[in-house]
Design brief:
The complex is a heterodimer. By secondary structure, chain A is an all-beta fold. Chain A contains no helices and 9 strands. Chain A is globular, with a radius of gyration of 13 Å. Classes of the chains: A mainly beta, B mainly beta. The A-B interface holds A 2, 34, 42-46, 49, 85, 87, 93-104 and B 4, 30-31, 33, 35, 40-45, 48, 50, 55-56, 59, 91, 93, 95-107.
């Protein structure tokens, strides 16, 4: 079973920030938080991951609470091409991590 | 190529037939994963290779499913005596040994009639 809880769907206006929440209250000390997204009919795409510090890359920012029980993925300026299912996954870091996907959040960016 | 490739993109077969699905990982990626995704669900882990060996095959649903990676690069997922319930998109991913963010292929859509 997935170790994360996400809302099934969210809407966001184009050009605005999209904030996607994730609860992972049972996360272990050696588990990272990963975010992937899946655009319709494509394979999942890696977005970002973090352990306990906030992270930022060219795609998004990841904010992890101090107790690590929840996190938020932020897309700073959502575009129509960001419409996708976003998956929050906790996994041990490194190449041995099999990813356990839940059902994710369907983000619909509206024009 | 630049990314993970999978062939065929679509496969239609009849119940009871044997199928092979191929995955070409990103060059230099030693880790390779197979997942399958049913409609409306997230991907489900099947098997993980590190090099030529299957390091974790705990997700294979039964002994009709088998995967190989004989030279540590290309992998083949083999399904014997296919059943209608095997219909799904089969996804392959690869990663480097460190900081294993996985790179996924476009998938093979398998339909068992």
């Amino acid at each position: 079973d997935a170790k994360t809880t996400q809302p099934p769907s969210m809407d966001c206006a184009e050009g605005r920030a999209a904030n996607l929440p994730c609860n992972h209250s049972t996360i272990s000390g050696n588990e990272y938080v990963y975010w992937y997204r899946q655009i319709h009919s494509q394979g999942p795409q890696y977005i970002i991951h973090g352990l306990k510090n906030n992270e930022t890359n060219e795609m998004a920012s990841l904010i992890i609470t101090e107790d690590r029980k929840s996190s938020t993925l932020i897309l700073p300026h959502a575009t129509l091409r960001d419409t996708a299912v976003y998956y929050c996954i906790v996994a041990i870091g490194g190449a041995t991590n099999k990813l356990i996907f839940g059902t994710g959040t369907l983000l619909a960016v509206q024009p | 190529g630049a990314g993970v490739s999978q062939t065929p993109s679509n496969k239609v077969t009849e119940k009871g037939k044997y199928v092979e699905l191929r995955c070409d990982p990103i060059s230099g990626h030693t880790a390779l994963y197979w997942y399958r995704q049913s409609l409306g669900q997230g991907p489900e882990f099947l098997i993980y290779f590190q090099g030529t060996g299957a390091a974790d095959d705990s997700g294979l649903p039964n002994d009709r499913f088998f995967a190989v990676r004989p030279e540590g690069s290309v992998s083949t997922l083999k399904i014997q005596r296919t059943e209608r319930g095997d219909s799904a998109v089969y996804l392959c991913a690869s990663s480097l040994p460190v900081l294993g963010s996985q790179f996924f292929g476009p998938g093979t859509r398998l339909t068992v009639l």
